[in-house]
Amino acid sequence: MLLSQLPNGAHALVTSVVAGSAEVGAATVRRLGELGFIPGEPVWVLRRGPGGREPLAVQVGETQFALRLVEAQCIEVCALDATGS
Which secondary structure element, helix H or strand E, spans residue 56, and what is its range? Predict the structure, then answer.
């Protein structure tokens, strides 16, 4: 599942970061990893922009980010239930 597919308030664990489309290069994938989107890291979708689109406000670790949809589509996750498991 991709981070971009999660609803507001969803919790997940990052499983991998890959180039999700032709407009995303290795530099973007590397940057996402440097920001903390690494396998095993917890991530939360806080809210979405107008109309439920972009940007996506997410929290990884203790830091909040606003991601474009194309960036969120590069982050593969494993969704967690409300208890975090």
Answer: strand 56-60
Neighbours of 18 (CB within 10 A): 13
- Please report the pLDDT score of residue 85 as a whole number: 59
- Mean per-residue pLDDT of the chain: 91
Give domain 3-80's CATH number out of 2.30.30.90, 3.30.56.10, 1.20.120.140, 2.40.100.10: 2.30.30.90
Asked if 43 and 13 count as a contact pair (C-beta separation under 8 A), the reply is: yes
Helix (H, G, I), strand (E, B) or coil at 50: helix
pTM for the full predicted model = 0.88
Residue 82 has pLDDT above 70, yes or no: no
